[in-house]
């Protein structure tokens, strides 16, 4: 889970201490999933229709064959939905090329629900706002370059009609 959601007191304490020029506690810096390597990716998911359920954010490595494949993920985080924007934070293994897929699991069943003909019934989105009109996007259209240090991307949630 994201420490900003679970431990809001520590985040506020870290901010206060930073304003006072004091060192922040180590726990306040451990607010992302994954081992701290100095490569951090914050994913801001926008345009959520509701605060029901949770938002699942999945990061895929630079191997295109793993993108959206079963067991292909590098990291996954499920965070409570917070409309209109939900954040998830990841410590990544190294600066590299990655891709991100998100969905709004409004009913909280940990599954990306579709109707009988396979059309999504829950919101979804991809890094680079990769197009997905007639199926899933390619890795190349969703790929992002993550550098050392802090990185932030925005993903727009899409909902069916």
TrEMBL record:
Pfam families: DUF2141. The keyword Signal applies. Residues 1-28 form the signal peptide. It comes from Caulobacter endophyticus. The keyword Signal applies. It comes from the Bacteria. This is DUF2141 domain-containing protein. Keywords: Signal.
């Amino acid at each position: 889970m994201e420490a900003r959601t679970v431990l809001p007191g520590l985040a506020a304490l870290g901010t206060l201490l930073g304003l006072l020029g004091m060192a922040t506690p180590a726990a306040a810096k451990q607010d992302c999933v994954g081992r701290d390597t100095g490569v951090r990716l914050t994913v801001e998911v926008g345009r959520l229709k509701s605060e029901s359920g949770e938002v699942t954010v999945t990061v895929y490595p630079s191997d295109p064959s793993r993108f959206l494949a079963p067991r292909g993920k590098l990291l996954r985080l499920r965070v409570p939905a917070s409309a209109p924007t939900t954040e998830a934070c990841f410590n990544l293994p190294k600066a590299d090329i990655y891709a991100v897929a998100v969905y709004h699991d409004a009913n909280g069943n940990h599954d990306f629900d579709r109707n009988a003909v396979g059309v999504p019934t829950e919101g979804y989105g991809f890094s680079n706002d990769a197009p997905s009109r007639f199926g899933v996007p390619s890795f190349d259209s969703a790929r992002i370059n993550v550098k050392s240090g802090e990185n932030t991307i925005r993903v727009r949630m899409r909902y069916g009609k």
